Amino acid sequence: MGRVSQAQAEENRKRVVDTASRLFREQGAHVSVADLMKAAGLTHGAFYKQFESKEALVDETTAHAFAELARRHTAGLERNDGQRDAAQQALIDVYLSVAHRDDPADGCPVAALATDIARGSGGDEARRVYTEGVADFADFLATDDQDGIVRLCTMFGALVLSRATKGSPLSEEILKAAHADLTETG
């Protein structure tokens, strides 16, 4: 089999990062390289042509997931209060929804990667990117009346608990209670 072009190699790398980002958020970073590459439609050996280690891939996918999160909410990052308030409200509505609960692969990296990062998956780079991502997310959520870290912790905790109790009435009750708390006007 012939060598792939530089453009094809870059496309393959992007496909692996995209696939890993989804799989790690859905299943955790313990997904095997073989399963990951199969999901990406590439050979196991191709992994080592693209990445020096799985840890390096976790580092890169963590950065990819947080960049994706930021891209989704870029319009709301502007300091215009009306736009920012609307963007925060839209984010809370989506974050504390049944659809987000049921789709961790496309969901928030804060909730999906927390356990893996805490257990040392990836390296120092993954932890640094995760920490910066959490800080940026909390900054985005801050209002004149509410601390962004508290708001993020409420959202994160509600999402994780609702995923853990999925299938019970408690799951949706958790989402609704957190949503009501975060959106009540005072």
As a percent range, the share of helical residues equals over 70%
Number of helices: 10
Query: What is the C-alpha radius of gyration, as a whole number of Å?
Result: 18 Å
Biggest sheet details:
none
Total strand segments: 0
Q: Structural class, from helix and strand content? A: mainly alpha
Q: SSE order, as H and E?
A: HHHHHHHHHH
Distance between the termini: 66 Å
Low-confidence stretches: none
Which geometry do the CA atoms define?
Answer: elongated
Percentage beta strand: under 5%
Mean pLDDT: 89
In short:
It contains 10 helices and no strands. The chain is mostly helical and 186 residues long. Helix 1 packs across helix 2 and helix 8 packs across helix 9.
Question: What report would you give on this structure?
Answer:
The structure is a single chain. With 186 residues, the protein is an all-alpha fold. 73% of the residues lie in helices and 0% in strands. The longest helix is centred in the N-terminal third of the chain and has 22 residues. The mean pLDDT is 89.
Keywords:
73% helix; 186 residues; mainly alpha
Blueprint (SSEs and pairs):
Elements: H1 6-27, H2 33-40, H3 44-50, H4 54-72, H5 81-95, H6 98-101, H7 109-118, H8 124-141, H9 148-164, H10 169-183
Helix pairs in contact: 1-2, 1-4, 4-8, 7-8, 8-9, 9-10
